[in-house]
Amino acid sequence: MADLNLMKAGIIACGSTNTKNQNALIAESLTFINQAAAGLNPRDWLEIAMLRALMFGLACSLFCLAAQAEGPVKTDEPYARLPLQFGLCDGPSWTGKSLFIPDVKAGILYDYDPVSGMLTKITENVRISGTCYRHGRLYASDNGNARISLLDGHDLTTLAVVDTAEKPVNKPNDLVVDAQGGVYVTLTKPNQVVYVTREGKVSVAVDGLPTPNGLTLSPDEKTLYVASYLPKEIWAYDVTAPGQTANGRKFAFMDDGKDPGADGMTIDADGNVYCAGAKAVWIWNPKGELLGKIETPARPINCKFGDADLKTLYITCFDGLYRQRMTVSGLAPGRDH
User: Fold this and answer.
1) How far is CA 119 from CA 132, 186, 280, in A?
2) CB count in 10 Å sphere of residue 73
3) Regions of the chain short of the pLDDT cut 50
4) Boundaries of each SMP-30/Gluconolactonase/LRE-like region domain copy (predicted)?
């Protein structure tokens, strides 16, 4: 019984040490049990069975904790800056083969092929702040013309104009497209998120949120996440119908100083939420618990998943385009939020 009590103490110790030591103690305890089982009194078999069950449960818990500790970022492959030149690259989107990248400062829309490394100019003299590829086409937040546009070959066509004034004030910032082909668009100055139907009709989906910027939809499209730039908050809204939301609540807050920066957003297949902050890309799980950050040498602007396995996070920053390998994947091509 002394040996059994010793094993019990070892199991209790597992709960108060680090994962590496816990795994070692469990392995040693299991080895001891198997070696000593033949010499134990019959009355001890029930207690041995109970100990085995306890250690099996603890091992399962440790496996889950280890998976959580790994996090969504592939830490053994650090981010890398791609050798591409931009004035100021903004909201990208993945097509399944390549990455659309708008250069909002140079007024150019590019297409980047990660296999060949080629950067191709698609159209110019445009001020696009965000893109979203879905339903086999590219939707663009045509900030310079206060409209939501569709890419047709090398030209942009109008889906909807969000401000018809001669000198428009309400210019679109970022956008995300839903399964119906409708577009949620942030209008930063009037503190609104509007919804544009596939026919081009515009309605207000969210009103009164300070400086809305990036946005994304949950994988099941039941939740709309919106970044509030100046207060550095992420808000979540229930989507009750296309273009209609309810139950707005604060989902997360960036507590990293005074610099503003709740900017572009994306989501992965597990529903984890990503947002570019003042100094890093922040990652939360669907419960709003912080999973980690991807620190960048320059201020990040936006991010999207890409590559053949959808396990590369492309991050646009003030000094160019970065890529970070991940342990989780983004949504399938055509579902790029």
Assistant:
1) 18, 28, 25
2) 21
3) 2, 6, 8-9, 11-20
4) 90-317
List residues bridging with 157 in a β-sheet: 150
Pairing state of beta strands 108-112 and 119-124? antiparallel
Q: What angle do CA 286, 287, 288 make, to 5 degrees?
A: 90
**80-325: CATH, from 2.120.10.30, 1.20.1250.20, 2.60.40.60, 1.10.1040.10:** 2.120.10.30
Phi, psi (degrees; rounded to nearest 5) at 54 = -65, -45
Query: Is the sign of the CA dihedral 281, 150, 213, 110 positive or negative?
Result: positive
Nearest to 328 by CA among 89, 138, 67, 146: 67
Positive or negative, the CA dihedral 98, 124, 92, 171 is negative
263-298 pLDDT, tens digit per residue, is 999 999 999 999 999 999 999 999 999 999 999 999
Structure tokens at 46: 């029930």
pTM of the model: 0.82
